[in-house]
Write the structure tokens for this entry.
Amino acid sequence: QVQLVESGGGLVQPGGSLRLSCAASGFTFSNYPMSWYRQAPGKAREWVATINSAGGSTVYADSVQGRFTASRDNAKNTLYLQMNNLKPEDTAVYYCKNLRFTNWGQGTQVTVSS
């Protein structure tokens, strides 16, 4: 079955960086675009970024454009999100998603605070 396992979150100061990973299984990873979403406390889940199946094309939410970079390693069935210049408003649980399937992973908590 489809499994998505996010990791790499943590506590970081404003201006810091983190790299999230998402290990995917249960489907042919290289065939699908993949996306990152996040959910802040008390707010709806929101889309962050999408990368195409080959990894050559990405799109980002305005709120993270220029600070976040999505990438993927199809040989390792792994999706990444490099987050730079983090801000307190980036605090959220981050999820990876294949829109073809309904499954969500458990997410990884990112907290940006001094």
Summary: Strands lie at 3-7, 10-12, 18-25, 34-39, 46-51, 58-60, 68-73, 78-83, 92-97, 108-112. The first strand starts at residue 3 and ends at 7. The chain has a mean pLDDT of 97. The chain has no helices and ten strands.
